[in-house]
Design brief:
By secondary structure, the protein is mainly beta. It has one helix and 27 strands.
């Protein structure tokens, strides 16, 4: 509708849009994420079809189909799309969403039908190396030293990062760093750089910002490796990973103090049958005094990894490459010298995608 206003000094014209609503909105048709979508990004753009009688829209996202646990909502949305902000959705979670049209003049419409999706099923777990650390980098000769880290799970990786590689050396330019997978794939991390500067503290990620570590590389930053950690994608993670350091000049040395391995996998590609390899598990007596027994019934013979940790975080026992036979297996630990209190155990079997965990108590 053209509108014209006139005064003694000027004339102004503009177009006025007049919207006439004759009823409240109908049920909205949802578009995306499509019903049943999987691996949806954590900041999705939600879209739906327009309704001519909707002044604005309301969106609800919940973790249940009855919407009793709404984790994110937005109202008075203008338009037919909405970008979910960062931090609102979690990985590997079932979500349900719906939309309704709002009209403050004729009344709000009903909620749409409910669509569901599963968010990005990437799960990342960090493993900490502890065996043989600190590891000497000897002054004699030009050694290559290896720090092993055993992983007791059967996922296939879709991302690997090397974290918190820390240690000392009195001539950092003489060192090469690399990582080797259980399948034998080797990726170079850090070539000989800098000069006669000391020590190292850094992490490696293919997706880190471009740029080389400083000299000396002791800022604890994350950098792109020399090679591609994506070379490990699709490989099984079970077995021993090895961080290697080559000292290329005789007469210098130091130590590797620690490092961590972050492995990401798609939880949606893990079959539930893999999780059920431990058919039954008993811990007795509980509470215990002199001994504690673990009894496991397995579908088949396989390797395992076991940790026992005190409630204050101290590692009491670590078994890296144990072997179970098919059927009932029993492990027994003498606890006479253990401090009374609560302990946590974790058992990873070779075909398991999650640890069998639990607690037991040692009495005085």
């Amino acid at each position: 509708i053209p509108i014209t206003g006139t005064s003694t000094s000027q004339t102004t014209s503009f177009d006025l849009t007049l919207t006439v609503y004759d009823t409240s909105p109908l049920a909205i048709s949802l578009v995306s994420p499509a019903n049943g979508d999987v691996d949806v990004v954590l900041e999705p753009v939600i879209t739906w079809m327009a309704d001519v009688n909707a002044f604005s829209y309301e969106l609800e996202i919940a973790t249940d189909g009855s919407f009793s646990n709404i984790v994110h909502s937005a109202t008075n949305i203008i338009g037919t799309s909405y970008s979910v902000p960062a931090g609102e959705l979690d990985n590997n979670t079932d979500y349900f969403w719906r939309v309704r049209g709002l009209n403050p003049f004729c009344g709000d419409g009903p909620y749409s039908s409910t669509f569901s999706f599963i968010s990005d099923r990437t799960v990342c777990i960090i493993f900490t190396a502890s065996q043989d650390l600190p590891l000497p980098i000897t002054f004699s000769g030009t050694p290559t030293v290896y720090s092993p880290l055993s992983v007791g799970a059967s996922w296939s990786t879709n991302d690997v990062n090397i974290l918190n590689v820390e240690g000392d050396h009195n001539w950092i330019s003489q060192l090469n760093f690399f990582i080797e997978s259980p399948s034998g794939t080797v990726v170079d991390l850090y070539p000989q750089r800098c000069a006669n500067q000391d020590d190292f503290s850094f992490s490696f990620d293919d997706e880190a910002a471009p740029g080389t570590p400083p000299c000396p590389p002791t800022d604890g930053g994350t950098y792109q490796p020399t090679g591609n950690l994506s070379d490990f994608n699709g490989e099984p993670v079970f077995g021993t990973w090895k961080l290697g350091i080559t000292d290329n000049v005789n007469g210098t040395g130091g130590t590797l103090d620690g490092w961590k391995l972050e492995i990401c996998y798609n939880a949606g590609l893990v079959g539930t049958e893999e999780i059920q390899t431990i058919q039954s598990m008993k811990v007795f007596p509980n509470p215990a005094t002199d001994v504690v027994n673990f009894e496991l019934d397995l579908e088949k013979a396989q390797n395992y990894r076991m940790d026992i940790i005190s409630i204050d975080g101290k590692q009491i026992h670590e078994q890296l490459n144990g072997q179970f036979h098919q059927g009932v297996n029993q492990l027994q630990f003498n606890t006479n010298q253990w401090v009374p209190g609560m302990y946590i155990y974790r058992i990873f079997t070779e075909d398991s995608t999650q640890a069998q965990t639990g607690k037991f108590v040692i009495m005085p």
